[in-house]
Design brief:
By secondary structure, the protein is mainly alpha-helical. It contains 13 helices and four strands. Its EC number is 2.7.11.1.
Length: 272
């Protein structure tokens, strides 16, 4: 983020949203917008083969993205998403940043729910996030929500046996604000957010909550700026009881928002 786009009084100035988009697009258009699509096309032996590869690409991307969102898995930079050249399917690796750690425990928080950057979207031209990608997202999330009781039972294991990263993050906040309750129940709050996702919570509201619980909250000015940007970048919906379609629409808007991608960590390559 350019220092000129930051106001010491309020974190972000409204005019800076345009500057964020300007800088984001400068980087985005340095690479041919259809570079990934062309690579997929070169893997195909015929036009029919390309459409099959593209369908596999979209379905596997959606399945990975929705599952990663439920589990709060972040750090989906370009080296953590692999492609099988024989069939076009994607596979994720390195799941160390999980259960909201990307938004909570990073100095530059991840606000996107999953990776759906311009190159990934361009593969699905002309429908982009509509059509197959939207349909598969709804189907995948509906399947997970219908199995929420089973998934909840699996998630409870992490409450009883929290990871060392969670304990370290909670210990850090304990030292900062001396909130013993936050230290004791940090694993439970992480799992509760995953369960709320399965119950129809608004993705935008959940990201805001995680920002308030994270490292960025140590600087109230920065927190206010991130929350303001989130507010103007994603349309408002109810806080909970959303339909699967409403959740999917919100997720796709957050994942493709240029202003949100524009303040992501540079090493995440949000413009690709």
């Amino acid at each position: 983020m350019n220092e000129k786009s930051k106001s010491p009084e309020s974190g972000f100035d409204p005019p800076s949203f345009g500057l964020i988009m300007l800088k984001f697009n400068e980087l985005r258009y340095k690479i041919k917008e259809d570079a990934l699509k062309r690579a997929l096309f070169e893997m195909a032996v015929s036009p029919e083969s390309f459409f099959n590869l593209r369908a596999n690409f979209a379905r596997s991307l959606v399945a990975m993205n929705v599952a990663c969102w439920i589990l709060g898995i972040g750090d989906r930079h370009t080296s953590n998403v692999l492609i099988d050249r024989s069939n076009g399917r994607l596979a994720g690796v390195d799941f160390g940043i999980a259960f909201g750690a990307g938004a909570r425990d990073q100095p530059i928080p991840e606000m996107v729910p999953f990776r759906l950057t311009p190159q990934f979207v361009s593969v699905m031209e002309p429908m982009r996030t509509a059509g197959l990608m939207h349909k598969c997202s709804v189907y995948t999330l509906a399947c997970l929500r219908s199995s929420r009781k089973l998934l909840k039972s699996c998630l409870e294991v992490f409450v009883r046996e929290p990871t060392l990263d969670w304990l370290e993050a909670a210990r850090y906040r304990f030292q900062q604000d001396e909130n013993k309750a936050a230290f004791a129940w940090d694993p439970q709050t992480r799992i509760n957010i995953a369960i709320r996702k399965l119950n129809g919570a608004n993705p935008k509201v959940l990201v805001a909550e995680e920002l308030r619980l994270g490292q960025v909250a140590q600087n109230p000015e920065f927190l206010a700026g991130y929350l303001k940007l989130l507010q103007v970048s994603v349309p408002n919906l109810a806080e909970g009881n959303l339909s699967v379609e409403q959740q999917v629409e919100c997720l796709l808007q957050m994942a493709t928002s240029g202003s949100i991608l524009g303040i992501a960590y540079a090493g995440w390559f949000p413009w690709f």
